[in-house]
Specification:
This protein is an alpha+beta fold. Among the domains are: 32-59 and 302-416, Aspartate Aminotransferase, domain 1, CATH 3.90.1150; 76-297, Type I PLP-dependent aspartate aminotransferase-like (Major domain) (Aspartate Aminotransferase, domain 2); 609-781, Aminopeptidase, CATH 3.40.630. It is built from 28 helices and 27 strands. Strands 15, 16, 17, 18, 19, 20, 21, 26 and 27 form a 9-stranded mixed beta sheet that branches. Strands 4-10-9-8-7-5-6 form a 7-stranded mixed beta sheet, with helices on both faces. A 4-stranded mixed beta sheet has the order 1-2-3-12. It is globular and about 90 Å long.
Length: 801
Amino acid sequence: MAKIKHHNFLNTVHEVFTDAKNAGVLHLYAGGNSFSGRTIEIDGRELYHFGTTGYLGLEQDPRLKKAAMEAIDRYGTQFPLSKSYISNPLYRELEDSVQKMYGHPIVITKNSTLGHMGVIPSAVDDDDVIILDHQVHWSVQNAAKMLKTRSVPIEMIRHNHLEMLEDKIKKYRDSKRHIWYMADGIYSMYGDYAPVKDLMSLAQKYPQLHFYYDDVHGMSWVGKNGTGYVLDRMGELAENVLLFGTLSKTFGASGAVLACSNPRLYDKIKTFGGPLTFSAQLEPASVAAAMASARIHLSPEIYDLQKELRERIDYFNACLSATELPLIDQNESPVFYIGTGMPKTGYNFVNRLMREGFFVNLGIFPAVPVKNTGVRITISRHNQLEEIETLVEAMEHHFPKALEETQTNAERVFHAFKLEPQAKSVKKVVDGPKVQVFDSIGQMDREEWNRYLGGQGVYDWNGLKFLEGVFQGNAKREHNWSFRYVVIRDESGVPILMTFFTLSLWKDDMLADAKVSQAIELERHNDPYHLSSQVLSMGCLFTEGDHMYWDTSHEWSGRAQHVLLEWIEGQERSMEAKMIVMRDFPKGTPLHETLYGHGFLRLKMPSSCSVELRAVESIKTYVDGLSSRNRRHFRKDIQPFLGRVKKQVVQKLVPTQLEQVKKLFGEVQARNLGLNTYSFPDALFDRMNKDPLWEFILLESLDEPDRVLGVMFCYNNTDRVYVPAFVGMDYSALEEYAIYRQLLYRTIERAIEKGFPKIDFGMTASFEKRKLGAVVQDKYAYLQTDDNYILELLGVMEGQH
């Protein structure tokens, strides 16, 4: 499988955003010569604006506009000096006003992103630890990651999971001075809250616990003087809390603000805070607009504005409650999220609403899991009650149409968000492909299976019979796999699509950087199932190759793929899988668009290698046919070592050999943390040794005849392909005898002797295999996760170890 390295992640995000951009729902440009806040022009059409984060509408307040214009006239467009030297003349009044709002010392920053980058490294000491809520804003996570260079541990918990938080606190309470928990006050996608009061109770139990809140989406529309949700819930700003608010968004101006009631910590942050020291200060227009807004916040008017917004929020909630739309979190914030599940349904729904005259935001990966795509709707004072009601009517009308047009239903959407469907979807009974599912290859016709999926890897009929015997009835969880065989047929019973899946326990870091896996393995000494999940995977961890037959020329080919994907969703729920993996596809697979639209992310896998041997008479003929460079490699790096070991092909190992090859395979697996999997059961090797379709290519020491230096475990697939499935090596003799290169060469030699037309050389080590004539092909996997927690956790760990 592929490793989710940083560039791989960025490529994935790029593809997702490009897909949404091409659908016309992202990277849009507003038009028009002016803004009212109530409407926004897109492609020449005036749409009602339900996408703003200016919830109180202050960005259009005449007082803020006038103050900004006057400041430009008096002081110019900017004040180009670092604030460490001197602040523009308006700053002192703004700082005084905002400090009155909070009742505590404040620091004003250029924006919240730069603010986090300045404050977090200053506030967190080297002997502290950071714990992130996995949905805390990217800007907080990014700033926290800066502390990796100082070896500050960074942990992550599932969203609002206080039991998990307490476990992390217990882990560090005896070794760390301060334990910083970082969270949002109001989360920007679903509009849900941090459990502030419960968290403060936890701090009473653990005095080391400190909080860092990003409350920019809770600002202005709630709380005394509009100071936000977090302070409203706390009542008083505790000394163990750093609180970020905003002077933009609902505040109507620009910039951000940090409030801190701890004098020592405040002085430390204020004196020197990275970007706080070296970045440019707010422009005079922004400072003046913020001053005008602060005056409103310090007056009784702020509560009138909050009340007006509350009336609109309540009305929207009341309208939604009369529908069956999947509102993901019902609360009293101005942020609402209607789930669509699949991205293509989200695109369709957003486009329908825009054609109806409403602008809303698309929620998409990485802000939310791909299969939790949806529409984010924000309510502001600009919105009128009749427009709110009409929006709900439009959503109620277009939501089922968007579902139908993208071949899904409401029940699937509710399941994607782990919500209880309010009403069962009524599925239309139509003629079309019929799906058959079996839980054993023994229930499948051997000839039919081999006709469509034989001749690859270890998953012809006999190979799967072998694997079912190995991975069932074992003592350990990771050694027991559930198999599902899927055949989708047309009305005549002819297969349109055929594949198989397994449910098995994977290490969550199987796709991570090897250094991350190395650190996680230390935790597994005490808890072997730390960071592991049940995964529903096409194929299995033992097999490689094209795991799916799909007749793209069949008139029902498109319908067959939709039947398969709906079946997979049902299996994910019934088997309680945390991830779905469809794998071993070429880059140009015709399934790409469909899988992306259904919420799958594409990730690069290690390349696949194969060797064509048709019409090759001998190993000499084969070597002579290599390129001049590869022949030089053979003469220099392989040929001199061939006579230094004894090679033999064994159908049945004696007990001493069997124990040695088990150990040698274990050596390879233990070192392969770049593809970190659980071990295989001992029964695997015992059954290989009894199965006539398996054989072992051994390299033995000439000086110690009973010593096995290397082994290739090889499967004979229906006389159509030779499969070196695994390798075992003695690493103490690896370079002295060129063991790996010799095993590759001997495998080719053996396949030619047996008359196989092809070798499936599998993945990894493509560089070495290419030098012996292997054809290398890029392969991709499509992955759909239960949520983003594991991906984000591994991203946080990347670079720490």
